[in-house]
Design goal:
- It comes from Phytohabitans houttuyneae.
- Residues 14-158 form the CinA C-terminal domain.
- InterPro entries: CinA-like_C, CinA_C.
- The protein is an alpha/beta fold and 170 residues long.
- It has a single domain, classed as CinA-like (Maf protein, Alpha-Beta Complex), CATH 3.90.950.20.
- It contains 6 helices and 5 strands, in the order αβαβαααβββα.
- A 5-stranded mixed sheet has the order 2-1-3-4-5.
- The chain is globular, with a radius of gyration of 15 Å.
Amino acid sequence: MTPETMGARQALTAATLLSRYGLTLATAESLTGGLVGQLVTSVAGASAFYVGGMITYATEAKSGVLGVDPAVLREQGPVSPEVARQMAARVRVVFGASMGLATTGVAGPTEQDGNPVGMLHVGIADATGTRAITLKGPDGSRAEVRAWAAQAALTELVGQLLRTYAVEPA
């Protein structure tokens, strides 16, 4: 199964869970450049749970538009778990969403500031807190890395929804 197919499946699963739990989602994307939002909005009825997204590709956009701490960007660079956490937390606030999902990483073709191609940090923010997940994807073309990263971010979102909001039957 291709990352694109997996991404579409994960978007549908996320949509089902967000709707079931009455939650809304906002996205902040760097590495994926809008692919997460594209996958989410390809699901019929997405307007019921998806409130919007921001593509903050440039470091200056992460701080100036989204509100990521400039000191963190200077000290850790734009590809770091803390930047992913802050992106997720800020996009959640900006859009007034229940959940924020963020991606930052390296699509290639070369490393960036010591981070290898395929490095991905996913940020997830909700009422329970904010966390970052660091993953290393396959080597491949920019398109392959970005498709994998969008799918991986949605997989992490689905996992968070299931861990946090699924209620065990009595």
